[in-house]
Design a protein that fits this description.
globular, Rossmann fold, 243 residues, alpha/beta
């Protein structure tokens, strides 16, 4: 995805979609990002073994501010940065549950790296929710390519949606967060998950890596901390107000 070459087209889209109120902040954000790309200061993380094996791109860092965004949380999302393979595997192995009982949801799934890595584990379903259309489209293509060679890839699903509007399945859930958005959206997501829990009580775990906005979850009445380090926090949803 060539952000530099597509810059004028995305400016036109941003103006049509968001108008003058958001255009200024978006323009400045993307000028800084594109200059960084041109200077080689940002844009590419380490190529993973997964990318080499499948012949895909999940490693290139992307700015989402001028992409086609589903929902109204444009300024609250963070850009795409892929998770390290070892970091992801360790975060899943740290969960002391029977993974086969759970569906896995990656909120802010980007190009689908975490989804592809999750296929190594026996989750019932593996779902990626991404609000940037361009990233979603890349993830769809990556999953299609993986389905011919990667065991378990038939369980992968990509959804273009705002995390706060997505209706999660009524399965026990492991909700994966790799610092995808700020505290405003985090609170809204917790409200949505809490509503889902009340409608269909079941075990809902939240794995939050790089927990920059953990205060939004720590302070939510439905969340309780199961495990906490500087880099990873695991929560369980519980209806604490139930009588």
């Amino acid at each position: 995805m060539d952000v530099v070459m597509n810059f004028p087209r995305r400016l036109q889209y941003a103006w049509r979609r968001h108008g003058w109120r958001l255009f200024g902040p978006l323009l400045w954000h993307n000028i800084v990002y594109v200059l960084g790309r041109l200077r080689g200061k940002c844009g590419v993380a380490d190529v993973s073994e997964l990318d080499v094996k499948l012949g895909i791109d999940t490693h290139r860092i992307e700015c989402t501010a001028l992409m086609k965004i589903e929902g109204e949380n444009l300024l609250h999302g963070h850009g795409y940065q892929p998770i390290g393979e070892h970091t992801f595997r360790q975060s899943v192995k740290a969960l002391d549950v029977d993974l086969a009982r759970y569906s896995f949801i990656d909120y802010g799934s980007g190009k689908g790296r975490a989804l592809l890595l999750a296929a190594e584990f026996p989750f019932r379903r593996i779902i990626g929710v991404e609000y940037a259309r361009e990233l979603h489209d890349v993830a769809v293509e990556n999953v299609k390519r993986a389905q011919t060679t990667l065991p378990g890839a038939d369980r992968l699903e990509c959804v273009w949606a705002d995390a706060t509007r997505y209706e999660p399945p009524a399965d026990p859930l492991i909700c994966f967060l790799y610092n995808p958005f700020d505290g405003t959206v985090m609170t809204r997501l917790l409200d949505r998950l809490d509503q889902s829990y009340r409608e269909a009580p079941r075990d809902i775990l939240i794995t939050y890596l790089n927990p920059v906005h953990r205060s939004a979850i720590d302070g939510h009445p439905a969340a309780e901390i199961l495990n906490s380090t500087d880099t990873l926090v695991v929560y369980r949803l519980a209806n604490k107000t139930a009588k």
